[in-house]
Amino acid sequence: MAKNLLSKLGNSVKDFAKKAVLYSSIPLVMFASSCQKEEPSPWTNPRPPPVVNPPVNPPPVNTGPLYDNVKSLNADELSSDYSVGDDKLVFSNSVSGRYRAGDIVYSDVKTNTPYGALVKINSISADGKSATISSASLDEAVKDGEFELTKRYTGSDLEGGRIALSDDNISLGKSSYVNARGQAYEFRLNFNEYVLYDDDKDLGTTLDQITLNGGMDFEIISNLKVKIKGADTYVKSGLTMNGETEFIVHAGVLNLSLEKTIPVGEIYFNPIVATIGPLPVIILPKLYFELGFGVDITSDISSSLTESFTAAAGVVYEGGKWTPYKSFTNNFDFTPPVVSLDANLKASATSGLELLLYGVVGPAGSIQGYYEAAANLQADPWWEMYLGLRGDAKINMDKISKRVALYQINIFDD
User: Fold this and answer.
1) Which residues of 227-238 are buried (b: 16+ CB within 10 A; e: fewer)?
2) Cα dihedral sign for 191, 346, 239, 226?
3) DSSP state, 199?
4) φ, ψ for residue 75 (rounded to 5)?
5) Is the full-model pTM beyond 0.85?
6) 18 backbone dihedrals φ, ψ, rounded to 5°
7) Nearest to 359 by CA among 79, 86, 75
8) Among 6, 86, 148, 237, which is most buried by a count of CB atoms within 10 Å?
9) Which of 112, 118, 109, 122 has its CA nearest to residue 70?
């Protein structure tokens, strides 16, 4: 039994020795393996990057010609017509969410906006059905843009327009005149026994009247260029007129000293639409005529004048300064005055063109021909004649830039 016990004890010692050798070898293997360079496995995925919020795309940059607060006005939304000078827009339904205070709104020529519209919204009512407004200028709507319009007016531009002449003895029609250079004109303004002055206000008695016969054949061309870039505004505006005039003035009034200017007619051409991107620039051309006369007489007097002229006058606004430009030629032919005693007679004819922007007078120019006949029977020579041509420009900048004041200038007087 003792032998068996010793035998089992020996076996246990042997087993313990084997396990001791085995366990003691494990740290050595681990140590050896830790000293080797670890090669990454080609099958191991790299660690994913940390999760971050995706970048937010910035709003698109407005590269168009207009500012972001400029919006098209749907004229069909209006429940009443918009007229120049109105301080309110009235809508059929609420426009809350569509417009807000500070917006610049525009419209083309529509039934409710016959001259177009370019206005600034100052406030919107609580129910969204009306808005208080004020006039806006192009440089408030345009950040970078321009337009240019050169227009020769013809009879077709009067279709749908309006002609308002002050007397039945004045008429406007198509010219049939061709000058010595073969140049044909577009219009003729005709005067047939037109009474400039009637001392007793009785058209049946003619010896006390000052009358005008004759007319003017002419063509008219306008030019307007506006360029806006930020706070910089460039404007070029000009008027060109070519024509032939023939006036015969007779004064039968005795002992009269008088000077007077008479508006004789206005012509509204069809609206013209220029564009800056989506913005319509509504231009309404208005042509007007005036006659001036002055007399200082103690007897009757008659005189006649024929004039051929080509005249261009305009101004340029650039870099904060105005610069005029001009070009003109004129030729006169006349007959000496016919008088029985000393007399002095003055007469002038003015043709002007105004360009209304959205119904507001903007650039304007005029050409005036004038003459004076003086007779003194005691002098040598006993009569004198003075002839001249004058060009003027006037620009109201309210609808182009409120930063630029009204400008007017006499460009030539020769």
Assistant:
1) bbeeeebebbbb
2) negative
3) T
4) -60, -25
5) no
6) -60, -45
7) 86
8) 237
9) 118
Closest CA to 227 of 154, 308, 317: 317
Q: How far is CA 249 from CA 99, 241, 296, 336, 371, in A?
A: 60, 23, 14, 12, 11
Look up residue 149 and give its two tokens. Answer: 């319009």
**Residue whose entry in the numeric block shows the structure tokens 């016990």:** 5
**Dihedral angle, C-alpha 203, 205, 208, 211, nearest 10 °:** 50
149 strand-pairing partners: 224
Q: What is the C-alpha to C-alpha distance for residues 312 and 268, in angstroms, rounded to an integer?
A: 21
Nearest to 412 by CA among 299, 330, 333: 330
Beta-strand relationship, 104-107 and 70-72: parallel
For residues 293 and 258, what is the distance between their CA atoms, to the nearest angstrom?
A: 8
Extended beta strands in 87-165, E state: 88-90, 104-107, 117-124, 130-135, 144-152, 162-165
Asked whether 129 and 90 are in contact (CB, 8 A), the reply is yes
Structural contact between residues 259 and 347, judged by C-beta atoms closer than 8 angstroms:
no
Tokens, residue 4: 């068996």
Walk along the chain (414 residues) in steps of 10 and give the mean pLDDT of each run: 45 49 43 47 46 51 82 90 93 94 96 94 96 97 97 92 93 89 90 94 91 95 97 96 93 85 95 96 97 86 89 96 94 85 88 97 95 88 89 97 96 92
Q: What is the DSSP letter of 81?
A: -
User: Residues near 408 by Cβ (< 8 Å), separated by ≥ 6?
Assistant: 392, 393, 394, 395
CA-to-CA separations, 137 to 140, 170, 282, in angstroms, rounded: 5, 38, 12
